[in-house]
Design goal:
heterodimer; A: 355 residues; alpha+beta; six-stranded mixed beta sheet; five-stranded antiparallel beta sheet; globular; B: 235 residues; mainly alpha; MetI-like fold
Chain lengths: 355, 235
């Protein structure tokens, strides 16, 4: 982690007088993986195309590789960057010819082009596809070839716009491994758009949450996933237990349930707050919980398998959602059963209620 | 009825025996329309690609105008070119009036909008990401355009074939600027017009059969191209 390779200030985009990206600032360091996560339509792709200089910004400035981006400099700067799109784009040629495209646009000599294409396909384990027609590939193969085409140009900054959104889980995993490898081996700076918050967490050093055209939170994965700044972010990063509450006698309380001690900044009596608790951070037991956690008796109101996990709804004054590994519990929690739920007070995240 | 069936039999005889005048007329028609289509394609494909590629104010209006010109009346084109090449017109000194070159000019004007419009449509049918991909791979504009045109080749080629179909079937403009002069500017359509008005149905029917055959081949060509175009999109 050294100098900033991209600095964006006040960058915004409007289409027909409607601002789809509000003026925003961002710096990305060399070798960093930044994930921009957010719901579809948040403006992530537009932002990414502006940063890759393939779509002009309506306002704002960018400095990339220490050089201000202008109409004049854009082509040169873009030559050191690459972008992979959600939709796999392959031209009606062979795989090798597709991978060669960026190199021929750069007017590299034919011999060097062929060598680089062969090398990148070899490196990515795709040599056997070289002479296939690009349109005959499967979705996963196609996206890997698109990725190879970008990597062949040796980008220093790589923009990945929802690269795995159309892929099956296995292809997603393969591509994610390729992305990490590119970052580790070549110190390539990577900016990744994804609506898959878990993918952001898996790959990124830092996460920016984008909603309605603005960054609402930028921070480490832990900050974003455990300390979201708003209810909207909390919901997007998958926090299922969000309760309105208030501070009473130094305790954070909602519906007579006392969650934790009020944090110092929110200690004022009567302060309205929002209480957030990850479903995975709540333990569930048929007996009492006695290890010093906050615990409450409750009644099971719903129970559903979700993959290897069991999602249990419990009414314990508030309506809690609890997720436990299915096999570990071995128990079936049937609606109507009496149970105990508990949590460590440090896993409760409390923010002031601004609504 | 007898006149028509007699005409028909005589027409087939004329074709089968490779009547020299019929061959000459069909050859001239092919020459004029192929030349006009090629010239139009050379102008209109790049023009259509540029209109597609660049965003500019009034782009929608330009496309609307191009589409309106699909239905440009042939006699209007004929009048326009006549005024251009007539002895007192701006190109009068070139002595183009009543030559095949004047006919080619008229047909170029007639079919260019068709190729421009269908080139834009064919390129617009490509994935939006395709243009972004060429840009992101750092293509200069002309390289990006070449890649995209190559990708839309079947759609664009079928536009060219359609344009040829319109050119060879056209009668008004070539009649006006070519003059339908025997052995010089007579084409399939102008000959049919003349022979029918003179009552020489055999000749008209023979020429009509040739024209229809060409139209059928053109249609077949468009179908084949569109089949490939569709198949490319499915993959």
């Amino acid at each position: 982690m050294s100098e900033d390779v991209i600095t964006v200030s006040g960058l915004a985009k409007s289409y027909r007088n409607k601002e789809v990206v509000h003026p925003l600032d961002l710096s990305v360091k060399k070798g960093e993986i930044l994930a921009i996560i957010g719901p579809s339509g948040a403006g992530k792709s537009t932002l990414m195309r502006m940063m890759d200089t393939i779509e002009p910004a309506s306002q704002g400035e960018m400095i990339i590789f220490g050089e201000p981006v202008t109409k004049r400099s854009a082509h040169r700067i873009r030559g050191r960057m690459g972008m992979l799109f959600q939709k796999t784009v392959l031209f009606d040629r062979t795989v090798a010819e597709n991978v060669e495209l960026g190199l021929s646009y750069r007017n590299l000599p034919k011999k060097e082009r062929k060598e680089r294409v062969a090398a990148i396909l070899e490196h990515m384990g795709l040599s056997q596809l070289a002479e296939r027609g690009a349109r005959t590939l499967s979705g996963g193969e196609g996206q890997r070839i698109s990725f190879a085409r970008v990597l062949a140009t040796r980008p220093e900054i790589l923009f990945l716009d929802e690269p795995t959104a159309n892929l099956d889980p296995v292809s997603t995993q393969i591509l994610e491994e390729m992305i990490i490898r590119e970052n580790r081996e070549n110190k390539t700076t990577i900016i990744l758009n994804t609506h898959d918050q878990a993918q952001g967490q898996r790959l990124a050093d830092r996460i920016a949450v984008m909603m309605d055209g603005s960054f609402v939170q930028v921070g480490s994965a832990d900050e974003v996933f455990y300390h979201p700044v708003s209810e909207k972010v909390a919901k997007f990063v998958g926090i299922q237990n969000i309760f309105p509450g208030h501070v009473r006698d130094g305790e954070v309380v909602s519906s007579q349930v006392s969650f934790c001690q009020a944090p110092g900044s929110l200690a004022g009596n009567g302060q309205n707050v929002q209480i957030m608790l990850r479903a995975e951070d709540i333990s569930l037991s048929k007996k009492g919980i006695t290890d010093g956690r906050r615990s409450l008796p409750g009644v099971v109101i719903s129970s559903a398998r979700s993959g290897a996990f069991l999602e249990v709804g419990v009414n314990a004054g508030c309506h809690f959602t609890v997720i436990v590994p299915f096999r570990q519990t071995g128990d079936v929690y049937a609606p109507g059963e009496h149970v105990w739920i508990g949590w460590r007070s440090d896993v409760v995240h409390v923010i002031p209620d601004t609504s | 009825m007898g006149e028509i069936s007699d005409g028909f039999i005589e027409a087939v005889t004329l074709i089968v025996t490779l009547d020299p005048e019929i061959l000459e007329i069909a050859g001239r028609s092919m020459y004029v329309s192929v030349a006009a289509t090629l010239v139009a394609a050379l102008i209109a494909i790049p023009l259509g690609a540029l209109i597609y590629y660049y965003d500019f104010h009034g782009k929608r209006a330009v496309i609307n105008i191009v589409q309106t010109l699909y239905a440009l009346p042939t006699v209007i084109v004929g009048l326009l070119v006549y005024l251009l090449v007539s002895y007192s017109g701006p190109l009068g000194s070139l002595n183009l009036l009543y030559t095949t070159n004047a006919m080619i000019i008229a047909q170029v004007i007639l079919v260019s909008p068709l190729i421009v419009g269908f080139t834009i449509a064919g390129l617009s049918g490509l994935d939006k990401e395709m243009k972004y991909t060429t840009l992101a791979l750092n293509a200069r504009a002309y390289r990006a355009i070449l890649t995209l045109v190559r990708e839309a080749k079947f759609a664009i080629l079928s536009a060219v074939v359609l344009a040829f179909g319109r050119a060879i079937a056209e009668v008004g403009a070539v009649m006006m600027v070519g003059g339908n002069i025997r052995h010089f500017t007579r084409t399939l359509t102008t000959a049919i017009t003349l022979n029918t008005s003179m009552g020489d149905f055999a000749m008209s029917i023979a020429l009509g059969i040739i024209l229809l055959t060409i139209a059928l081949i053109v249609n077949l060509g468009v179908n084949v191209l569109q089949h490939y175009n569709g198949r490319m999109k499915d993959e």
